[in-house]
Specification:
The chain is mostly helical and 90 residues long. The protein is built from four helices and no strands.
Length: 90
């Protein structure tokens, strides 16, 4: 897997609006995202990836999911399911 940095990408405004509207009290994922946004960037992980090959997932997004997985006590399968299904994990 190679790295194609995508730093600077933000949650689309409509996605954030829907996540907040559907969770007016907030969620752990929204709270963490609000505080960790910009803590790490894809470029921070560039030395860990080769320059060629199929593009990998964003390591900054994966790092955020790992933090959420730990905080919420999720298994790997549960974390993957949350990324796939929960708008607040987007």
């Amino acid at each position: 897997m190679s790295l194609r940095p995508r730093s600077g990408e933000h949650v689309p405004p409509l996605t954030a609006q829907i996540a907040r509207a559907s969770n007016p009290g907030g969620t752990t994922a929204i709270w963490v995202r609000d505080r960790l946004d910009g803590l790490w960037r894809d470029e921070d992980f560039a030395d860990w990836h080769p320059r060629d090959g199929r593009p990998g997932l964003s390591p900054a997004q994966l790092a955020t999911v790992c933090v959420l997985q730990f905080l919420l006590g999720l298994s790997d399968r549960q974390a993957a399911e949350a990324v796939r299904c929960r708008i607040d994990f987007k």
